Structures are given as structure tokens and as C-alpha cells.
Amino acid sequence: MLHLVGELTAFGMVLGFSPLHLGLLLLLLLGTEARSRGTWFVLGWVVTTATAIALMLSVGHRLVVTMEMGSAHRTGLDLVVAGALLGIGLKELLNPAEAELPPGWIARLERFSAMPVALLLLTSTALELASPDELLLLAKTAGLVLAASLKPVDEVSAVLLFSLISSLFLLVPLLGVLFVGESLATTGLKSARDLLYTKGQRLVGIASLAIAIYLGWQGIAGLQVGLTS
């Protein structure tokens, strides 16, 4: 169980460090009706993440998909996710000149942040589920829970735990605004926004590479188990 919690924490932190969603939240918290719009945005992320994993678990149980070490499903998923994250990490880290420039998605974020709340939530959900790397991370997380063969109540707890961990990067600035106040939190939010714009993609690259190496090792170990079994 401790191993499962550790893996859920690692994948949740990587999934949650999404420059697009973090940048959008920071813009919301620096705009009008910051508390209500920011709260709805974070709740939308949590619900989307939990629902996506719950649906994947439902499909996995229905198809009796096995995810133990050495199984074709787990080995294949490990290697596919590792390859995707490796590509993302190398792309971010091998283009330092581009990373120093303002990312092209800043203008789009500003347009998104001006949307009505309902349309904003739909856009946020679509962005999360349309991102191949985020979708693969969600699938990998569902596979981890399946492999643990948990009781239904424990599966629900695991899904909720992952959703909470993946939202930590969003919760910190939101809680700052809720408890410290919009005026007092403004300076910190602007600093976080500027840091995200200049260094966010590089940090994503480092995190992606770290998880890619781990999953690649898991996939190779799975291939060895599968060949010897």
C-alpha cells in the first residue's frame, strides 16, 4: 500500500504540474471574482481527474484487464507512457532558447480566463482530456490501482487521494487567496505567474524525464518477467 501511495503521489504531482492549467488559474486569481472563479476551476479539475480514472477503472474491471508486473497490458502501458514523457521532456530541455521566450499560449490563456465560468470549465476539461501525456498518465494511474487489487472502498479512496494530490499545485494559490486575501496574495501570485512563464516548461521537462526513466525501467523489468514466466 505504501508503494502504491508513493507512485500515486509521483504521478499526481507530474500530472498536476500543468503550465496551461496553472497559468490559467493564476490569471483567474488575479482577475475579477477571483475566489469564486478560482474555486470552480479547481473543483472542475478534481472532478475531471476523478471521473476519468473512475471510468478507466470501470472499463478495466469489465474487460478483466490484468496489470500485474510482466503482463502485456502493464508492460505495454509502461513503455508507451515512458516514450511519450521522454519525448516531452527532451523537447522542453533541448530548446532552452525557446523556453526563455514568453510561451505562445499566454495570449490564449488570457482569452480563456475571460470566459464565463461554465464555458471555462468545459474548456479546462477538454484541455486536460485532449492532452496525450495527461491522458496517458491518467491511464497509468488507473492501471496502478487495478494492479493493487483493492476493495471497492479502497479503490475510491485511491482515486480521491490521487485527485487531491494532482490538485495540490492548484490548491496552494487558491487557498492563499481564500485565507490571506486577494490584495495580500497579489504579489505572490504575480511572482508565481512570471516564474511559470519563464521556467515552467523546463520544470515540466525535468519531471517528465524523471517519470519516463522510472516507467522505462518498469517496462523493461516487465518484459524480463514476461519472458521468464
Could you estimate the helical fraction of the residues in percent? over 70%
Structural class: mainly alpha
**Shape estimate:** globular
> Which regions are unreliable across 5 or more consecutive residues at pLDDT < 50?
97-102
Q: Could you report the average pLDDT, rounded to the nearest whole number?
A: 82
- SS strand fraction: under 5%
Helix and strand sequence: HHHHHHHHHHH
Question: What attributes characterize this protein structure?
Answer:
single chain, 229 residues, mainly alpha, globular
Summarize the structure.
With 229 residues, the protein is mostly helical. The chain has eleven helices and no strands.
Topology:
Layout: H1 2-16, H2 19-29, H3 34-62, H4 72-93, H5 96-99, H6 106-113, H7 117-130, H8 132-147, H9 152-166, H10 168-180, H11 182-228
Helix pairs in contact: 1-8, 1-9, 2-3, 2-6, 2-10, 2-11, 3-7, 3-8, 3-9, 3-10, 4-8, 4-11, 8-9, 10-11
